[in-house]
Every structure is written in C-alpha cells, then in structure tokens.
C-alpha cells in the first residue's frame, strides 16, 4: 500500500507524470523491482499461480514472469534485480494484523457466495459469469505465497536468465531493501526503482520511481521534484517528514490530519534534522487538533523510512489451506455445472421428446427466428395443437 492516498492526492493536484518509454530507458543501468509492490507484476504472478494451482505452479509462474520482465526491461546493457518480500518485521505487525482481519471478512463473504452457487447447482440452475468471475477474483485475493512457493518462484526466475536477472530474497520488506541498496550506490542514477508503492517516493536515496499505471500495461515516471512541487513542499526532508507522519504501513496518522492537512503544517516547518522537524510537527499538529499528539506514534515509521532499519520477526511459514479448500470446492461446482448442462442437452436431443406448436401458428412461439414448422428441431417430434 505504502502511504495511504498519496497517488490519489497527487492526481487531485493535477500531477501528470510522463509515460515511460521502456525502450528508451538509460543504457547499462540496473532496475530494482519490487515484485509484490508492482501492481501489474504481482497481479500477473497471482493470476498465473491461482488459475491452476499445483505443486509446480510456482516454478511455471516464475519462468513466465521472468520472460515477461526480460521483454520489458532487459536490453542495451540493462539488468534487473527482483526483490521478493521475506518475513515480517515488528514495525509492520499492526498492518499485517489488519490484513488478516480483512482476509477473515473476505472468507466469510466467499463462503456465502459459494453456498449460494452450490444451492443453485443442486437445483439444476447455473450461476452467471459475473458471479463466477467475482469468485475467482476473491479466491485470488485469499492466495498467499508459502515459503515453498517463494523458493520455487525465485529459483525459476534466477535460472531463466542469470546474466540479466538477479533475485534478491529480502530479509523483510522489499521497499526497505531497495532503499538500502540505493543508499549504498556508488554511481548516483545507475539504479532505477520499479514499484507501485508510494512510500518509496519519500525515501531519501530514491530520486524517482517507475510506477505501473493501474489497469494498464504502461509505466509512468514519478520524480521526487515533481511530487514536491505538486505538494508545495520545500525540500526532500519535508517530503520524508510527510511520509513519516502520514498513514502508512508502519503507523497511523494523527486523527483528522490527512495528506493535504499535513502538507499545510509541514511546509512551514524550518529545514533541519529529521528529529527537530518531527518535534516541530508534533507541536504544530497538537495545536491544530487541540490535544497532545504522542511523539511515539511516529517512531516505527521514522525508524524504517529515515534510519532504514527494522526489527525482523521469526520466520513463520504461511498456509494456503483456506485458499485450496475453497478452490477445490469452486472447481467441483464448475464441474457439476458442466455435467448438468451436458445432461440437459442430452435430454433435449431425445427423439421422442414432443415439441409443441401454438394453435393456428406457423412458427415456434418460443423461438421466433424459426419461420417454418419444418425447420423446428428436425430431430424432434413435433406435435401440432391444431390437429
């Protein structure tokens, strides 16, 4: 997610980032890709994994994804480093708990829809394509990568084109790993960041981000200078401060103070160390909301976004059993639907099934495009009610 509503506010501020021509990317550069943070790549990978999930699905998806990334980015000396999220960190624990709660609600809704589909199937009725597509989308949202899936995925991407594609198994969050990589960069501008997460825009080592545009296959350049100009912030330090105090993956914002309100406060804060600027913000925000803002509220965000450190938690493998159970149930209902349709077609084609024509009518009242009795289901027995 990154910083909540950041891209929405930038769009409201009429920031129109230029569409990137991937063929014209700088030569001999290295692209640092946040795999799960780039919406287009993550959606493609999840679709490949969930359409026909089995033990080899992750390896197959990794090969196809590596081929796709090579076609997009590799060439003219450019190489790719794919960053894959590792375990959880303590700073993001609250966000993971929220997502777990959302997954429970999603599961309850999915069970309700599947039960309705099962009831209709038992009564010989089919479920419309819109509902089936909604079930597929919800199933995809429930899917999580297990450690075995990640191992197979990374091994496949690494072996596809080892000269041009490198895979980084991050200790925790990929965006933090990318920021650390750029912080150690010897040649400024040699590494380019590819991500849809807005929080990478505020890290000091990051100058610009190549963002995948939602619901398209295009990318757009978001530069730090353009973002600062749209938000009317005087320096990169002020933009970093906005990222720390705004609602993000690592902490909450001050209640009633969104991005626009925070920008109004932050742009008047004198430039200095991030600690001094944060203290000034706490004082100004407390005066605006009429209660004392707790400085501790921003400790986790500052530790990650400014200090570039986090606290890894013990690695716990995640289970896909809930997803697999619902996937098997959905596939069973689809198979039952196909069988019901086959039986209906067989019954309809029986020679001894009478087909009735309305009195004094020369056409089938139920199939108006037939104009003659002789053309109505030639294999069926026609009963004329005029007789």
Keywords:
387 residues; alpha/beta; Rossmann fold; 2 domains
Description:
The chain has 387 residues and is of the alpha/beta class. Helix content is 47%, strand content 10%. The chain has 2 domains: 6-305, 5'-nuclease (Rossmann fold); 351-387, no CATH class. It contains 13 helices and 8 strands. The strands form 2 sheets. A 6-stranded mixed sheet has the order 3-2-1-4-5-6, sandwiched between helices. Strands 7-8 form a two-stranded parallel ribbon. Helix 2 (39-51) packs antiparallel against helix 3 (57-73) and helix 9 (236-245) crosses helix 10 (259-266). The longest helix has 30 residues, at 93-122. Mean pLDDT is 85; it is low at 367-371.
Instruction: Classify the helix fraction into a percent range.
Output: 40-55%
| Widest sheet: strand ordering | 3-2-1-4-5-6
User: What is the count of β-strands?
Assistant: 8
**What value does the Rg take, in angstroms?**
28 Å
The N- to C-terminal Cα distance equals 72 Å
* Structural class by sheet pairing and helices: alpha/beta
CATH architecture descriptor text of the largest domain: 3-Layer(aba) Sandwich
Average predicted local confidence, pLDDT:
85
Uncertain runs? 367-371
Topology as a string of helices (H) and strands (E): HEHHEHHHEHEEEHHHHHHEE
Task: Categorize the overall geometry.
Answer: globular
CATH class value of the largest domain: Alpha Beta
At the third CATH level, what is the topology name of the largest domain? Rossmann fold
Q: Biggest β-sheet, characterized?
A: 6 strands, mixed
Number of helices: 13
